Amino acid sequence: MLHRRSFIASGFLVSFLSAATKATAAKGSTLQVHVTYTGAGTVDDAHKLYVSLWDTPDFAKVGASPTTPIALKFVTAKSAVAEFTDLDKSPVYVGMVFDPTGKWDAQSDPPSGTSLGLYSTEPGVPAPVPLDPGKTTKISATLDDSYKKP
User: Fold this and answer.
1) What percentage of the chain carries pLDDT values higher than 90?
2) Residues near 44 by Cβ (< 8 Å), separated by ≥ 6?
3) In whole angstroms, how far apart are CA 109 and each of 9, 16, 38, 89, 104?
């Protein structure tokens, strides 16, 4: 099924491509993302670590048009699990955002200094996470301070 989505701030510096992508049905799938932040900031109730899911890897392309994640969760510890349930797309792609200011509400462009990251096997390229209908998939992802929004 082809989808076009409009942007609600995902926390990424790059502009995002609003591109059509084929995704297979994965009804009732669950994804558990064990995310670890190894940067210098403190993750707590005021300084959340956001995990976003996308139905296309194009969200991370430089110079692309804005897109909307298909799901967004946050955690309040440096190492925690963000669980996404009842997903109906496969594969999905994972992005991560940490706001050291504690002022970002995930409804606007993130502030300068925000750490950004991807679940990837190749630097800078989002890796697909295939989901099976009715099953739970578990992945681990690490976010550091190596890429920040200027």
Assistant:
1) 62
2) 76, 77
3) 5, 12, 23, 26, 8
How far is the C-alpha of 19 from the C-alpha of 4, rounded, in Å?
Answer: 6
What is the rounded distance in angstroms from the CA atom of residue 141 to the CA atom of residue 118?
Answer: 8
Residue 13 CB partners (closer than 8 Å, separation 6+)? 114, 116, 147, 149, 150
Question: Which residues, including other chains, have CB under 8 Å from residue 139's CB and lie 6 or more apart?
Answer: 31, 32, 33, 34, 94, 119, 129
pLDDT number for residue 18 = 29
**Which one-letter amino acid corresponds to residue 143?**
L
CATH code of 29-143, in short, is: 2.60.40
d(CA 129, CA 88): 13
- 77-104 pLDDT per residue, tens: 999 999 999 999 999 999 999 988 888 8
